[in-house]
Structures are given as C-alpha cells and as structure tokens.
Design brief:
mainly alpha; 0% strand; single chain; rod-shaped
Length: 65
C-alpha cells in the first residue's frame, strides 16, 4: 500500500507541477499538492485493495507444506 501510494503521489505531483507551470507559473506549487495528494490517496486505496486480495487468496489456499 505504501509503495503504490508513494508512486502515485510522486507521479501525481510531477503531473501537477507540469500542468501548474503551463497554466500559471506563480501558483505551480499549489498544483503539485492539488493533483499529487488525491493521486496518493488513490494509490493507497488501490494498494490496500491489491494487498487485501493477495492476503485473502493466500489464506484460502491453506497452510504451505
């Protein structure tokens, strides 16, 4: 979950910076947070879902021998 949240957050922040510099350079740093934070939250949710599915599938197979 942490890896996907960090990855999505960094990519979202980079996209926000580029879009902010194109739109209005003096407020470009706000766009980093405006796009990066929601992207990080989305990454956390996707990572949590993937981890839950993996954990559940490992439990359903039974103990490893």
């Amino acid at each position: 979950m942490l890896v996907s949240a960090a990855t999505f957050g960094i990519v979202g922040g980079a996209v926000g910076l580029v879009l902010g510099l194109i739109a209005y350079p003096p407020t470009a740093w706000f766009a980093v947070f405006e796009i990066g934070v929601p992207a990080g939250v989305l990454g956390a949710l996707l990572g949590l879902a993937a981890g839950s599915i993996t954990s559940r599938s490992r439990r359903s197979r039974g103990p490893s021998v």
